[in-house]
Amino acid sequence: MIWIVVIASAVILIIAITLAVIFSIFRKSFTRLPPEKNAAFTADSNELVSKSLSSENAKRIAEGIAWVHSRDCEHIYITSFDGLKLHAKLLKNPIPSGRIMLLAHGYHSFPEYDFSCAFRLYYNLGYDMLLIDQRTHGESEGKYITFGVRERYDILKWCEYLDSRFGKDRRIVLGGISMGCTAVLLAAGLPSLPDSVIGIVADCGFTSPYYEFAHVMTHSMHIPVFPFLDIASAISKSVTGFGFRDCTTVDAVKKTHLPILFIHGEDDTFVPPENTIINYDACISRKELILVPDAGHGLSFLVDERLCTEKLIDFLDSL
User: Which of 176, 248, 293, 317 is within CB 3.0–4.6 Å of 104 for a Cys-Cys bond?
Assistant: First the structure.
């Protein structure tokens, strides 16, 4: 009898410790960065090198950030469907093409960083650019990050804002990287997305919060997915209002007519390229896939700028 009590106590203790770890990670991962890191992104090349980037790539990113900061941008605020104040910067092109890139950054990041190497390309093609702060990032309000589940409705709100301000003749291209990619792909599956949206550039997104968290738990935390991820999802549902299985980009790309350019680095260990391959295979609209050898997470443009530039120009010209 005593052995049963000991074993049961040990099991309960292990489960309690594991859940405590999951909850701790949950609280840290689902909330915004500390204030000192959540201010306007002004990293210089030395700070970027500390992020394990090569000095050459760090310099290119820093130059792109400086280029954006040197331009006059209009600060815009709108209200989300659930009452949050959302912020974006609008960079207008002096020789406009009648098109605008709506750029959605990744998890715990900033548009100035994530799109630093693409700004001048879009600008030279005549695009205006809307650099949004995702909810719970930058100047946008929010208590919890929802990994695309609620962010997709923020994308919709920004599109509606652009329509109301510039008219439906202004064409919108959605560009997203990492979590921002997931958000724009999920938005593509919304039936109310305006007709002014004409295409998507989807860089290294994950198919769903559940799929990504399962990968992180297995490969980084070495915690079994079942039952702990499902328990964490239930906790998330009760605390934040969203569950990890609430939606998936696979379902979204089965509903959209929008052309999509999928991009992913083959050496991405944070969001494996299988995510994009799954999305590409499921997509029923016109599509193209670029897998960049030797590129880690979000680094495809840095690793093979020539290939990515050529494919981006060809894709945008086709819209």
Answer: 176
Does a structural domain hold residue 5? no
Buried b / exposed e across 152-162, counting CB within 10 Å, b at 16+? bbbbbbbbebb
Digit-coded pLDDT (tens) for 278-290? 999 999 999 999 9
**Among 135, 178, 142, 126, which Cα is nearest to 157's?**
135
215 part of a folded domain = no
Tell me the CATH number at 308: 3.40.50.1820
Examine residue 227 and say whether the peptide bond preceding it is cis (omega within 30 degrees of 0). yes
pLDDT of residue 45: 44
Residue 154 lies in a domain: yes
Whole-angstrom Cα distance, residue 155 to residue 103? 9
Helix (H, G, I), strand (E, B) or coil at 33: coil
Its pTM surpasses 0.90: yes
Structure token pair of residue 141: 């309000």
Q: How far apart are CA 271 and CA 294, in angstroms?
A: 14
| Residue 298 Rama label (left phi>0; alpha psi -120 to 50; beta) | left
**Among 200, 205, 178, which residue's Cα sits nearest to residue 188?**
200
Give every CB contact of residue 151 below 8 A, 6+ residues apart in sequence. Answer: 104, 134, 135, 179, 180, 182, 183, 186
